[in-house]
Amino acid sequence: MTAAIDKQEQAKRWFWMVCAAWLLISVYFIYERWAQIYWFSLGDTDDNMRLMQVRAWLAGQGWYDLRQYRLNPPEGADIHWSRLVDLPIAAIITVLKPFIGGPKAEYVAIATAPMVPLLIAMTGLSVAVRRLIGPWAFVIAIAVLLFCQGLLSMYMPTRIDHHGWQLAMIPWLVAGIADPKARRGGITIGLASASSLAIGLEMAPYLGIAAGVIGLRWIFEQGEEQRIRAYGLALGGGTAAAYLVFGSTLNSTARCDALSPVWLSAMLGAGALLFLLSLIKSDDWRVKLGSAIAAAAMLTGGFAWAWPQCLSRLEGISPELYELWFSHIREVKPITQQNFETQMAIGFSALIGPLGALFALIRARGTPNFGAWFAVFLLCLCASAMIFWQSRAGPAVQMLSVMGATALGYHFLPKLRASGNVLVRVFGTVAAFALISGLAVQLALILKPEEKPKAGAFKDLSSKANAQCATIPSLAPIGRLPKGTVFTFVDLSPRLITLTHHNAISGPYHRNQEALLAVHRAFRADPKAAETIVRARRADYVMICPNSSESTIYKAERPNGFYAQLAAGKIPAWLDPVTLPKYSPYKMWRVKVAAGDSPTKDP
């Protein structure tokens, strides 16, 4: 009896155990990434832009004004993000700035802010597997999580962008579906969905699957009307609140790529229809199914009638911009076009997740968790299918695969540990965990012989250029030049404005199509046409990072274009060289003032 009571008390302390694990993981992450923190290495363009958004807000820019005025001056660049992700970064800087100064406060913020969504994700994952599998399943889930490198990279220090926040909402969807208390579960799903939409639309397919499963449970299971009712109210009310609090001025018009009147109206309509469905008194599944189909048809038809422009690509980019820019982005390419290591890591998760969920689904037949495991299985299949469209679905694949892998581990590991054979008990348990967690795949990749790149090889040169051009020492001499607008690569621009006082033309943000096209057209054009574009953008400098990833595209597609000639030392007469240190990876020129030059728009 005493032992049973002790176990119950330990189970009640699960959250503090999760917090302890989170703290240890966070400390290790900071230790492991100390060099990146020390050198303020915000490696991704979005991380740099996120910090610039926070800086602008703290410097007095309006809460609802998310335009980035350091890009495309003087109009600025339209950024479709949300202030929700800015809050912890800004809070850390604001609290610490009076004590250690602004620059050091930013260092602390970029190191620790990603740990906030990590705790939310770990807690949601623990709640989900405790409800789906067992009270101690969260221990296996956290252990498996440690080997999901693609997923964990979204929570590493300096990774301050929004992707970790969106991924953290996925396990809460499952936790709400699996909640034995229907009303609480519905509220959880609705608020998680609204929060995800407030941040961005990347998780919309998973939100749709969650909604579909809730509808199916209401149709075929008794007592689910409270869940669907609470879900509808929380979804509509939560989305409305998110729009009022976090919707930017630029998103007050009908935009397809963010929480705007388009998606607000859709979620309000969905919430109202779900509420009305919950009021149906009939227990006949045919009546419920017909009502659900009618409601779905009304919602879909109304959306298509009101917002037909949002039935195609949500980015709304032109064919030219897609061809020149979007089609070259690595993360939007399918898994089949990624390197072998990425294919193996993500591919394994795409396999183990659905298999584990299917195993648990079969075992859950006739139990209250059947519907929840059906949701996990569908979510896993959806994520696994999406990587064949865009490989950036990989982290979501790994988040969902943790649940399937945990189900397998929770069932098989105790059996192996209980074996009378010491070899099975020890080595069998270790081997089984290595298999279900993906550790075996990682070890195989580590032990795989690497081909040493030849000196001067394409990938070697590109990697070095990407690393060198983003560093503080490389950009410091640029920052000492008189302030101006720099015409440079779109992938360099966010880092440039973060570390120097200069402005730039455009970052890789799809709403700014004309500025984006200006950069891509100019570096592919002949020098004369490039001059017209550069002057039209009122640029003071032209800067390139030879051999960087973006530069290789220009050189490959236009061997005699403006960039290729600059890299080869063929400098047009309208540019004057800027002297940089010998160690600088950059090449830079001043744009000569042209008599009567008064550009007003792009050619």
Short structural summary:
This protein is an all-alpha fold. The protein has helices at residues 2-12, 14-32, 34-38, 45-58, 86-100, 102-112, 115-132, 137-145, 149-152, 163-178, 182-199, 204-220, 225-246, 261-278, 285-306, 319-324, 340-363, 370-386, 394-417, 422-437, 439-447, 458-469, 472-479, 493-499, 513-524, 527-536, 549-557, 562-567; strands at 485-487, 503-504, 541-544, 575-577, 587-591.
Detailed description of the structure:
- By secondary structure, the chain is mainly α.
- Helices cover 63% and strands 3% of the residues.
- It has 28 helices and five strands.
- It has a five-stranded mixed beta sheet.
- It starts with a helix and ends in a 12-residue tail after the last strand.
- Residues 598-603 have low confidence and may be disordered.
Which descriptors apply to this entry?
globular, disordered C terminus, mainly alpha, 3 domains, 603 residues, Rossmann fold, 28 helices, five-stranded mixed sheet
Q: Count the helices. How many?
A: 28
Strand order of the largest sheet: 2-1-3-5-4
Q: Which bin fits the share of residues in helices?
A: 55-70%
Give me the Rg, rounded.
26 Å
Give the biggest beta sheet. 5 strands, mixed
How many strands? 5
Percent range for β-strand residues? under 5%
Secondary-structure class: mainly alpha
Low-confidence stretches: 598-603
Shape: globular
Q: Overall mean pLDDT score? A: 93
Q: How many angstroms does the end-to-end distance come to?
A: 83 Å
Number of domains: 3
Topology of helices and strands:
Blueprint: H1 2-12, H2 14-32, H3 34-38, H4 45-58, H5 86-100, H6 102-112, H7 115-132, H8 137-145, H9 149-152, H10 163-178, H11 182-199, H12 204-220, H13 225-246, H14 261-278, H15 285-306, H16 319-324, H17 340-363, H18 370-386, H19 394-417, H20 422-437, H21 439-447, H22 458-469, H23 472-479, E1 485-487, H24 493-499, E2 503-504, H25 513-524, H26 527-536, E3 541-544, H27 549-557, H28 562-567, E4 575-577, E5 587-591
Parallel strand pairs: 1-2, 1-3
Antiparallel strand pairs: 3-5, 4-5
